[in-house]
Specification:
12 helices; Alpha-Beta Plaits; about 40% helix; Aminopeptidase; 4-stranded antiparallel β-sheet
Length: about 400
């Protein structure tokens, strides 16, 4: 009888998502056509929260001190668990929605609307958490620090990709701004009076490259010059570079970062310059809850999708969802929308294509079904929480490097 009830509810979830398909497409395409950078996603927030308000969700904007963060709440039964569906909606500079965040936020909203309609006696509390500035701003990190995820029993989101995957990992990472200070002089008339901030920066790039032989294979250190001087006949007094450093986890990231910082300071000192380093927020490594991932995979397969194994090495980026996974049970699965690679113009086009719209529909259904699975079966919820608690205990027992 329980299986029959579950199947009946999931069929209603499918129908509820399909009934809103045109509405969800319109939201996703509006966000795609109006790309907004991190912490400035005002139009996207309006489009995403409007249908939630209309459906009876309690919507709060500006949470955690972030103008474009929001929380939409609906309580089915007071004594049930709290499930968070996470939305992203920021775009990339120049490229727009080349990571498909227009689909992520819309899928979370679609899943929430479908659950409320299909399961009015939902055994728990459902949240839609709008998280701005994933692309470098670390919106989820700020929200984690503000306690937004503290009372959440399980959190999930779904990202577009070229494959259906449920257990793909993510590297810990941190952004560094390198500021080099020298002394200005005429590059021809009296160069001996100058100290080149540009030479200091070039030396720093060489020093960082020299470290690559002595770090693990999953470490990434990539940077660009953002300011290289004013004119070729002036010894640059100030130059600037932006770097992102990645490693398997925060412990190893801190080790690599310390090596890089030391190398940069020595490189600058070698020409008589100095360097200041500004550190951004640290994105934690991804902690996928395997119990939740199995549920999500089963639901994707129920939709007729083939789920593939993630790459054993390489092909991995970073996301602030990793920080959420340090606080509560979390998954970050992927749904295929085409063959394009993220952060490219081709993927931007895929995010507004028919394939993107189909992926949006599938993601909303799988998210809603998985949230239902966790709340409807106390044994499943127990397994999810026990797995997270065991992981947390293992992390606490590790000795610091």
């Amino acid at each position: 009888m329980q299986q029959q009830t579950a199947d009946s509810t999931k069929e209603k979830i499918w129908q509820a998502v399909d009934a809103r398909d045109s509405q969800l497409r319109e939201i996703a395409l509006n966000i795609h056509a109006n790309p907004e950078l991190g912490f400035a996603e005002f139009k996207a927030v309006q489009w995403l929260t409007a249908p939630l308000r209309e459906a009876g969700f309690d919507v709060e904007t500006g949470i955690a001190g972030l103008d474009t963060a929001f929380r939409a709440t609906w309580v089915g039964k007071e004594d049930g668990p709290t499930i968070a569906l996470i939305g992203e909606y920021d775009a990339l500079p120049e490229l727009g929605h080349a990571c498909g965040h227009n689909l992520i936020g819309t899928a979370a909203v679609g899943a929430a609307l479908a659950l409320k309609e299909a399961c009015p006696d939902f055994p728990g509390k459902l949240l839609v958490l709008g998280t701005p500035a994933e692309e470098g701003g670390g919106g989820k990190i700020i929200m984690c620090e503000a306690g937004v995820f503290d009372d959440v029993d399980a959190a999930m989101m779904c990202h577009p990709r070229s494959k259906n995957m449920v257990l793909r990992g993510g590297l810990a990472c941190v952004g560094l701004t390198l500021k080099f200070y020298g002394k200005q002089a005429h590059a021809s008339a009296n160069p001996e009076q100058g100290v080149s901030a540009l030479d200091a920066m070039i030396n720093a790039f060489v020093a960082i490259n020299s470290l690559r032989q002595f770090v693990k294979q999953d470490v990434r250190m990539h940077g660009i010059i953002t300011k290289g001087g004013e004119a070729a006949n002036i010894v640059p007094a100030y130059c600037e570079a932006s770097f992102i450093v990645r490693a398997a986890n925060i412990r190893e990231l801190n080790t690599v970062k310390a090596k890089l910082v030391e190398a940069v300071h020595h490189a600058a000192a070698g020409v008589g310059a100095t360097c200041e380093i500004e550190e951004g927020l640290t994105y934690a490594e991804r902690n996928n809850n395997k119990t939740m991932a199995r549920l999500f995979q089963h639901n994707l397969q129920e939709l007729g999708l083939v789920v593939e194994e993630p790459p054993q090495s390489g092909g991995i980026g970073s996301s602030d969802i990793g920080n959420v996974g340090q606080i509560t049970a979390t998954i970050h699965p992927y749904v295929r929308i085409g063959d394009a690679v993220p952060h490219t113009p081709a993927f931007r086009e895929a995010a507004c294509s028919e394939g993107g719209m189909v992926g949006l529909n599938q993601a909303a259904k799988a998210l809603a079904m998985t949230a239902y699975d966790i709340c409807a079966n106390p044994e499943v919820l127990k397994e999810v929480r026990e797995e997270f608690t065991a992981w947390k205990a293992a992390q606490a027992s590790m000795q610091p490097l």
